[in-house]
Amino acid sequence: MKHSKKSHKEGRGSFSGRIGYVLAVAGSAVGLGNIWRFPYLAAKYGGGIFLLVYLLLTVSFGYVLIMSETALGRMTKKSPVGAFASFGNSFPFKLGGWLNAVIPILIVPYYSTIGGWVIKYLAEYLKGNVQEVAQDGYFTGFITDSFQTELWFLVFAALIFIIILGGVRNGVERMSKIMMPILVLLAIVTRPGALAGVKYFLIPNMKNFSFMTIVAAMGQMFYSLSIAMGILYTYGSYTDKDMDLEQSTTQIEIFDTGIAILAGLMIIPAVFSFSGGNPENLQAGPSLMFITLPKVFASMGIGTAAGILFFVLVLLAALTSAVSLMETCVSTFADEFHWSRKKCCVFMAVVMIVLGSASSMGYGALDFIQIFGMAFLDFFDFLTNSVMMPLAALATCFLILRVVGFKKISEETEQSSSFRRKKLYTVFLKYFAPICLIIIL
Predict the structure, then answer these.
(1) Within 13 A of 287's CA, how many CA atoms are on the CB side?
(2) Per residue in 392-411, pLDDT tens?
(3) Which residue, 123, 347, 371, 433, has most beta carbons within 10 Å?
(4) Which of 266, 258, 377, 359 is nearest to 311 (CA)?
């Protein structure tokens, strides 16, 4: 516990205990990825068999990466740049650290644009416009109206900064303790009477299996568990040495996967019954949440209530994730440049307004600017998820395999945990993790 006193003296934030930490990380992991990406991928790549592959990957590969990043954060008491620099100050170490640190800086602005869309839809359902938002062309009309998208983006961004300025315990932890239980309760509310969809989603069928099932499940696991975004380094650095790392990781896996399954149970059967049982009708990404589901709600007797509940759920999920991303950015600048929390927030506000405005106007006023044929939001999404995150995770694997070593990771973990999955951890990190990451790339 001596370490934690020192960290307080230096003004570093910390969690009050394991529950605060687990809820904060689970809040970070449970985001838009669980609610719009997971059901769509599960429907597209085999339903029950996709779910089984996803679960197996989460308890092996996901476990290894969560444990690695959290242990390195706790060991060094630093966010990603400082954690890498603790083991060497040459260019490869700096690159590995900054790669993990830059990802949230690029993600949080475009993520906040989508958060703004969620608030807009919630506002429409609160006004009772259940039929209006279900009309063909409504979503396209909205995202090409730059004034509206910018306005709602700024509302969402303001909410994040209010929470972040509260600090680790009063802001991040308090928000997670309030929002996560509400989020779980809301996720349990599902639409009955669509048994074919439930069966397709929960019962594995080998006929639906393909190589893409593994690749898609692996990509989703990354996106969903907050791996390779610098978040776990940062949150690990806020924990005390007596917090059971392994038990916390297990709880995070259960929380995150539970919400993803509940989202699947909520969305897949509803769309199945609405569309006559064809998994092809589950649209990709935003279309599912902002086009298909509003049509489902419009066809229900309690469409307004269902719409309000659903978009409150999505807003809470988006907020908890965005706050984690922002906290990681703020922590990195505080560690590296010794800025005050306020100064870090002001700097990130400038970054947010520049990159977030580009994303929010990318389909409207700025649609004439395309990067490799993509609007700003799509480009940032592709760059961070498909390129930078696998590279950042490879950097973490390399750091442990070549520099830190399993002995130090074991010692760090065994200060507070029995490390039951130690064999799995070693074998997976040594042989499977690098191969899996290269496959994703």
Answers:
(1) 8
(2) 999 999 999 999 999 999 99
(3) 433
(4) 266
